[in-house]
Specification:
The structure is a single chain. Strands 4-1-5 form a three-stranded antiparallel β-sheet, covered by helices on one side. By secondary structure, it is an alpha+beta fold. A hairpin with a 2-residue loop joins strand 2 (10-15) and strand 3 (18-22). The protein is globular, with a radius of gyration of 14 Å. It contains one helix and five strands. It has a domain at 3-42. It has one helix at 32-41; strands spanning 3-6, 10-15, 18-22, 27-29, 44-48.
Length: 64
């Protein structure tokens, strides 16, 4: 999941029945689809590609 900084308010509609609103100034990890749509609309910029989640644990060889 990329980390994005929004430069203006942006509404992302992943389905016809839902909307996710991002306020200008918000910076955080969002789905790749939302990041690409925001960048294409000129509402945000990707600051980090594939940023690790805060609670992500490193996978060791042999772990599932």
């Amino acid at each position: 999941m990329p980390k994005v900084r929004f430069t203006k308010d942006y509404d992302f509609k992943p389905t016809m029945q839902s909307t996710i609103g991002f306020k200008a100034g918000y910076e955080g990890m969002i789905t790749t689809a939302a990041a690409e749509a925001a960048a294409a609309a000129g509402a945000g910029e990707v600051t980090e590609k594939d940023a690790p989640a805060k609670d992500a644990k490193p996978v060791k060889d042999g772990d599932k």
